[in-house]
Structure prediction request, 317 residues.
Amino acid sequence: MRIDLNGQTVETQARTLADLLAEQGFEAPCVATALNGDFIARALRPATRLNEGVKVEVLSPMQGG
Amino acid sequence: MFYDVDLTSRLMLGTAQYPSPKVLLEAIEASGAEVITVSLRREGVAGGAFRDLLANSCCRLLPNTAGCHTVREAVTTARMAREVFGTSWIKLEVIGHADTLQPDPFGLVEAARELCAEGFDVFPYTTEDLIVGEKLLEAGCKVLMPWGAPIGSGQGLRNLAGLRTMRAHFSGVPLVVDAGIGAPSQAAQAMELGFDGVLLNTAVAKAVDPVGMARAFGRAIQAGREGFEAGLMPERDMASASTPVFGMAELA
Prediction:
């Protein structure tokens, strides 16, 4: 299945958001996730299923003003 | 002072644009700031180093929604920030114009209402408009952060009279001048007007010596506050001799 991960098209075997983070090598406790523009809390990631073409954002703490 | 948190320093420091993480850490320390602003982005190469830096700093974090142009983006970003940073504090920016980075007051009030209802402690980046300020307080904000000048412009307090009016109008509300400060004297001026704090980033990060500038801002803000508390003399149009005329010799 192809999805959009942080603006890049990615081919993934993952069926859930939690699986996607593991597959793509993210440190799950250190990131925040959104699916199609909606925040997905950490606890909901295993139950959040991915569909073809979904837009996933995985964000980390960065410098800001 | 801000959402039941008392701080010693009235400077809030941004963490972006420093020459290196080491300089950033030293600047925070030299400034005396107890609150630093942070953001959420797609992780780049230096992401891990920044996380370590946050863990080593004992500052309270104020995540922002910088770059968000819609209510939805800002609200989603705030929710993501609360989980990652473990704080309900959020510096709410809903940007209305790409060139001036002026806040969109309509989107700002709407996003503030939503986030306050969800238990966030919202620090809204706003203009000096009194009615927008009123609406933000009605929405549940307990702090207002008017701009001094456009973000990163270093122009200082561009609407001095408007900021003075805002200070007088919201006498019991913590007010922080956020954005546009370029020099320590401008930060001192905000404090002399009775503002409760100053938030800045570029003026320190882009100084020739960021650590020295951070220290200068810390001191200027403290001096400005002490000046305000001591009560400034009223301005006059004409001169008024300070040395007494009584006892003056006749030498002419």
